[in-house]
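> Could you send the Peptidase S10 prediction when you get a chance?

Sure thing. Input:
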Amino acid sequence: MLSKLCIAFALAAALAASSAAAAPPSAPPKKETEEPADAAKGLPAEVATAHTMTMRGEKVSFVARAGAVRLRDGKTGAPRVDVAFVSYERADADAATRPIAFVFNGGPGASSAWLSLGGISPWRLALGSLPPSPSAPPVVVDNAESWLPFVDLVFVDPPGTGFSKFLTEDEEARKSFFSTKGDADALAVVLRKWLAAHRRIASPKFLVGESYGGFRAVEVLHALRERESVGVEGLVLISPALDFGWLDGEHNILALAGRLPSYAAVTREARRRADLADVEAYASGEFVVDLLKGVRDEEAMRRLETNVARFTGLDPRVVAEEGGRIELKTFLRDRKRAQREVASAYDGEVVGFDPRPFSRESRWPDPVLDGLRAPLGAAMARVTLDKLQWPVGDARYEILNDRVAHDWDFGQGGRAEAEAVSTLRDELALDRRLEVTIAHGLADLVTPYFVSQLLIDQLPVFGATSRVKLVTTPGGHMAYLRDDARKLLRDAARAAIERK
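Output:
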């Protein structure tokens, strides 16, 4: 996901299982391409455990592994970082034909626990109603909607997140990982080394990324092909941030057009994209035209104010004050201002109390993002020690590292000009087998679904429109937190991986 710090900048600015069976591995295979982690300094050696679980009536036996891939300085060979991973592999499948997906979140600075225990690993954090309570006990339950029945899963925590551990005090060496290119290059090496060490080079490979993880997945795919001789068959991008310029309404009016349907989705509590056809047509048509006419055209301004108030449900006076250009923070606060509540940017339908209801200016912890940090981090620590039996001791699990977001180098032009669409375009043109599924929650106000639709519309067909698909679900940025959306997301991922 996009970190809270990144959101602040923007405000201010899943092949069916093979019938061929293989004997379930009882211990990690010998690793000839990678030396074990230094137990005295690095992360503990890899641990494998066997499990059996029933998922939607299907008995699934699998091996879970927790360990790390060590990255070294290319010139000196000095250890730089141990990159932690957790993998889940079916024990009754042929590894040569069984698909495998590498999963990472975004931020930058977010760990993989959000996707893992949020909705797609064999276990998940049990959540009641939203918003979550930070003090709720971290109850972990079997996940009936896990993707494991149809794809093996490897969750990777980039440097600075999860249990990943730096092995150098060199600040410059550490910062080299905190950049778009350095991150993609490093993760490509991690994935190639993991595939070699676990004899999965021949497996069909997929990348799954959420939020900035969607951006990351595109760049890692490119780095894998170009520098590591590893091909990827497909991408599943969940709430991706593919072009940051399209997320900043202050400097790009198209970002306003991209977010408006999500404002309406929140107001209408829409469950299907079809329920938003009218606002999509307006947002990509008359809305943009009137924005371009500018504030000097009084008739255009009146139309903007009338229509935006109608679609957003906001007080017309508030809409008029902002000239029909509704900032995200305004919508989040004014939607439920009379009730002294504020909405979550990560799911606009979820609200929490406004800590400063009588102040003209207010700031507040996000009801979803901040409410989840403690229970999700605690749940991951519990799974690691109790189920995976990886002896990390009292090490802290970095669920969301704000420092990584703060120090991130997006490259020339900075965050405002960072985009992965150009790379995606090139990779689609080069590889006719590559397919992309993009999934969004309708109520996601951080990376709105319509932004991705507008970006997809700018891509050539490349043989068939089905090569790049957009699917929507109820819910927000982490739509998988909702039971109905988690099922829909699993089905979309299965269709993408089995190519149905």
